Amino acid sequence: MGRMKVLNSPTIRRMPCYLHQLTRLRLEGQSHISTTELAKDTATELIVVRKDIALTGAKGRRRIGYEINELIAKIKDYLGWDEMMSATLLGVGSLGSAILGYDEFALYGLRIESVFDSDPEKIGKVIRSHEVYDIASIKQRLGYSTPDIAIICVPAANAQEVAELLVEVGIKFIWNFSNITLKVPEGVVVQREVIAGGLAMLSVKRKHYKSGDLKNIE
Amino acid sequence: MGRMKVLNSPTIRRMPCYLHQLTRLRLEGQSHISTTELAKDTATELIVVRKDIALTGAKGRRRIGYEINELIAKIKDYLGWDEMMSATLLGVGSLGSAILGYDEFALYGLRIESVFDSDPEKIGKVIRSHEVYDIASIKQRLGYSTPDIAIICVPAANAQEVAELLVEVGIKFIWNFSNITLKVPEGVVVQREVIAGGLAMLSVKRKHYKSGDLKNIE
Question: Which residue of chain A is at minimal alpha-carbon distance from B185?
């Protein structure tokens, strides 16, 4: 089966920033926005914002700009955030807890419905309003109502084993925060989150900066 | 002052995955690797791996592949990870703790040398082998020995204020995990980490998947 590359990842990754800012402005009662203003508010280059927004299909009007409500709807539609996604979270160490505490996910249509861990100290406790279930009970708990996505926050040493349980339960989309490449059957999609990726970006910018290549880096 | 775009962010963000895998193989005693093997091990398309590795300047040999030691050195050089970077971390909530606990940073040349928080419950405590200092003491503590980068993990409401303190102390590179756009003077570089960016990627893949556009998505 062939693999196709159709995703413009930098654009997709920027969308939540726009959404965050637009939602904030809407709360403040603002109804329209120009790409110039959105670029300034999100510290993004104007040409980049214009290209990104064009991809969503939103239409701006000369001198009036974009209707914020419409722009929010278009971005959500572009990202598939126009409908709710249910999720299960595996591993409530510090990273898992941080993710559970990330209030904006609700805004993005993500609902974390269950939380699992294997640590007897955590099982049965309530962490950030979620009761922690024993990972041994995952098939029984999720078997008849499979969440849309799973978020893996367990240590690298346990991640493959957990991924296999998730596949057995019928999960098709995995957001992997563990620092390993998961082996999954064809048809299961893994989004790997590499925290060091951001450090790599910052580091390359610093390298260019020090060598005088760039004065100000996007 | 003009802004220049010279960074290939998807490539840069993938480099830590290669580095992670190569370091692991080296530990296991392997001396050479082909791009085919590296592509498989990191679940990345072969053509992508080939382009990425070519950018580092590493030279492979027909039928033998790349010398792992050389490839690691070339990737580190490409990322500016060939020398140590000192860091200070602001905010030790769950996310800050997770970052403190990320052992691989040492491998990437990042050394977190100081940790600050404003919570009296945390100040003076030792979290993951780091004593937590009062953020009010930041100028006094960092004024004469400015770290290379700062990692902001404080809540969004406090992030701008913390960024201003960092700028006063002379920090030029900020890794921002708070969910806001920081306003900083020209010459200060901010790398914003948008956790929802990965969710956006996964969500778009799911959208394409559901609509039958893609069977298997990179």
Answer: A216
